[in-house]
Amino acid sequence: MNKKLIVFLIILLPIMVQANTGMAPDTIVAVSGKVISEDSKEPLKAIVEYKKLPYGSEIGAISSNNDGEFIIYLHDNSKNSIKVDSKGFFSYFEELDVNQVMGDDRNITMNISLGPGGVDHVFRLHNLIFDAGKYDITPASFGELDNLVARLNENLNMVIQLEGHTEILGNANLNMKLSQDRVNSVKNYLVNKEINPDRIKTKAFGGTHPISEEDTPEAHRLNRRVEVRILKVG
């Protein structure tokens, strides 16, 4: 390639990115990834929606390509909700704090697996994070819970079971009660959104099913969670 042409392309690229995204080049963070089936590991065509929080001042959506790959551009110093949908699969939802996960190269990689959403499928509410010993739902969790409400409204015959878990430290009986309190909090939120309580079962596991048995703050945080099991879809 002609050297003058190479220089021209290098100079032009930031201008093109700014025109396509409306962002100055030094504020852009590229978020790229791949969407696959959780079971077959095959790539999926999916819709990736993103919205700047808390007010949705910037909203966009793109389709992944035939290889399941996608790329979106977000501002640094921003928090965004990311929702991924593919027909026949359960939606993926995550709140992304750009500065917390951005690499030195200003890139973020998100590889997303979508489950089929059939009976006995279990998925975690990723953005429902509890403080130690607490069962309060914070506003940061509303987006993911509202996504669950939307899916329940799309399938009025769906019945789910909320499964509560705690970290493995502490008294086993207290942990069991705490995990029940957590699923009750989630159920109350859904019922307040007019979901029939008969469609929401609950089960407490305490600290008996940890994701990690490491004695680290991150492991304890991951173990404090609520998962959703699909009991009926039609």
Name given to the CATH homologous superfamily of the largest domain? OmpA-like domain
Gyration radius (Cα, Å) is 20 Å
Name of the level-1 CATH class of the largest domain: Alpha Beta
Architecture per CATH nomenclature, i.e. the level-2 architecture of the largest domain: 2-Layer Sandwich
- The CATH topology annotation of the largest domain reads as 60s Ribosomal Protein L30, Chain: A
In what range is the share of β-strand residues? 25-35%
Structure description:
The relative contact order is 0.13. This protein has helices at residues 3-21, 98-101, 142-154, 172-192, 217-223; strands spanning 28-37, 47-52, 59-63, 69-75, 79-85, 92-97, 107-114, 122-124, 159-165, 200-204, 225-232. It folds into 2 domains: 1-115, Immunoglobulin-like, CATH 2.60.40; 117-234, 60s Ribosomal Protein L30, Chain: A (2-Layer Sandwich), CATH 3.30.1330. Residues 2-19 have low confidence and may be disordered. The chain is an alpha+beta fold and 234 residues long. The longest helix has 21 residues, at 172-192. It has a 4-stranded antiparallel β-sheet. Strands 8-11-9-10 form a 4-stranded mixed β-sheet. It has a 3-stranded mixed β-sheet with strand order 4-1-7, with no helix packed on it. It is 27% helix and 31% strand.
